[in-house]
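Pilot study result, target chain (169 residues):
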Amino acid sequence: MGTSLSDQQLGFGEPGNIPAAVRLSAACWVASAVVAGMMPVILEVADIDFGQSIPDWAVPYLVAFAVPLTALQVLAAQHLLHGARWARILLTVAAALSALGAPVDLTALILAGLVLTLAGATLMWLPASNRFFVLHRSGPAYPVPAPSGADTAFADTALADTALKGEVL
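Predicted structure:
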């Protein structure tokens, strides 16, 4: 009745041949964004004590920085499923900064976010994940549409071929 996971479309329309380590890594990163990125902001704005409190004057700054950075983390996690190397590098840097900037007295919420972050970072560098990213290195990051309409007049020129392949002119 249902389709198997290998037949499903994941991420940005990629076939379901994404290694389990990469899929799990992306899931860890999204969960980390919710647990370590948004939950502390929500709890702080709601004035609920979760063990890590900041001064009242700093709450607007927390919201101003946490929301866009969390959105960037979720976006990068989605691009992992598409084989984007920039996303893997960005998330690796985020994991390193999270580990180095973790407070000494960890609360359960912060610890859970840190564990998810480090798990996501580790999974995206496993050998199966490396093969996935190497295979995506040779092709363009996004499919290039075939020329149609007015573009077909230039379809046989070398300049149009170079431009359509996404190469620098």
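One observation from the pilot: The chain has two domains: 18-138, 143-169. A full batch analysis is planned for the follow-on phase.
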